[in-house]
Specification:
Layout lengths: L5 H12 L7 E2 L1 H5 L4 E4 L4 E4 L5 E8 L7 E8 L5 E8 L4 H13 L4 E3 L3 E2 L7 E7 L3 E11 L2 E10 L4 H13 L1 E2 L4
Length: 182
């Protein structure tokens, strides 16, 4: 079971390490321009890559010792923004996960975060915004993923990014949906 601070540590570690991972597979539609939708029937989710300079890397990264999988990272090539999708065991409600993440992130020097609140992306989604000093903005969303899974999204982008970057983040957050597992 993930402890009160282990989960935020996993998310922060994922945030910091993601820039150095390479994808083992990528969105097939990205190369052909045919589809922006990525479906992982094994993990039971789909997400849509925004138009423009967003790229989707499907890592196929297996579960960590805490049971957290990081299957997809979406990156905005121009700004350096990224959205990390994590799938964790559903050991708590979305609200409990968001509260634990919020408390954990607030414990790190330089982090500040808004209070968790319901999000309109699903009936059970909860999230909050955060910042790392004056240079990086971020957003977290947690929602049920079906079959004992929880979906967590962690987005970061430079504070001086255009509105289009935060709109892309909103599009990604709103497009993540559970699908029947294969």
């Amino acid at each position: 079971m993930l402890t009160r601070l282990a989960l935020p540590a996993v998310m922060v570690a994922g945030l910091c390490a993601c820039a150095h991972r390479t994808a083992s597979r990528s969105d097939p539609g990205q190369a052909k321009g045919a589809s922006r939708r990525y479906v992982d029937s094994d993990l039971g989710f789909e997400v849509v890559r925004p138009e423009g300079n967003w790229q989707l890397d499907a890592n196929g990264e297996g579960p960590s010792s805490e049971g957290v999988t990081i299957p997809v990272i979406l990156r905005h090539r121009d700004s350096g923004a990224q959205v990390v999708i994590q799938i964790a065991p559903a050991i708590a409600t979305p609200t409990q996960f968001a509260e634990r993440l919020n408390l954990g992130l607030r414990s790190y020097p330089g982090f500040s975060a808004s209070d968790p609140e319901p999000l309109p992306i699903s009936d059970d989604a909860v999230g909050f915004r955060f910042s790392m000093g004056d240079t990086v903005l971020g957003r977290v969303a947690v929602r049920e993923g079906g079959k004992g899974k929880m979906f967590m999204l962690l987005a970061t982008w430079p504070a001086n990014s255009s509105d289009g970057v935060s709109s892309g983040v909103d599009e990604i957050f709103g497009s993540l949906r559970p699908v029947p597992s294969g």
